[in-house]
Amino acid sequence: MEWRVETLNAAVDAELEGLPVDMRAKFVHIAELLQTFGPFEVREPYVKPLGNKLFEMRMKGRDGIARAIYVPASGRRLVVLHAFVKKTAKTPRSAIRLALDRAKGVL
């Protein structure tokens, strides 16, 4: 049984739509890797653990760097909670807080 990558809601869909085209393509590629091989086989440079059961998909494009924070959920699902263009060296705490807040309905 394959894993499934899904978005939490329309707000996350809009965040993904707001990413540059090349970064959206990278997101799709990483999501396909996760669905095919599962979250335990896909590692850096594609994904990285953030702690608190959160992981990030790491996308790089011509316009910079983007991240999509996701959480494993029941039923072999990976739920994307937040997507954004990264402007600092570290993932902003505000992005992690937002993802954790959104994760409350999933975990």
Beta-strand share of residues: 25-35%
Q: Helix content range of the residues, please? A: 25-40%
The CATH architecture would be 2-Layer Sandwich
Number of helices: 3
Query: Strand-and-helix sequence, N→C?
Result: EHHEEEEH
CATH class term: Alpha Beta
Alpha-beta classification:
alpha+beta
Task: Please provide the count of β strands.
Answer: 5
Give the overall pLDDT as a whole number.
95
Biggest sheet strand line-up: 1-5-4-3-2
CATH topology: YaeB-like fold
> What can be said about the biggest beta sheet?
5 strands, mixed
What is shown here, in short?
The protein is an alpha+beta fold. 34% of the residues lie in helices and 35% in strands.
Describe the structure.
It is built from 3 helices and 5 strands, in the order E-H-H-E-E-E-E-H. It has a 5-stranded mixed β-sheet with strand order 1-5-4-3-2. By secondary structure, it is α+β, with helices and mostly antiparallel strands. The protein has helices at residues 10-17, 21-37, 93-103, and strands at residues 4-7, 47-51, 54-61, 64-73, 77-86. The mean pLDDT is 95.
What keyword list fits this structure?
107 residues, alpha+beta, 5-stranded mixed β-sheet, YaeB-like fold, single chain
SSE arrangement:
Layout: E1 4-7, H1 10-17, H2 21-37, E2 47-51, E3 54-61, E4 64-73, E5 77-86, H3 93-103
Parallel strand pairs: 1-5
Antiparallel strand pairs: 2-3, 3-4, 4-5
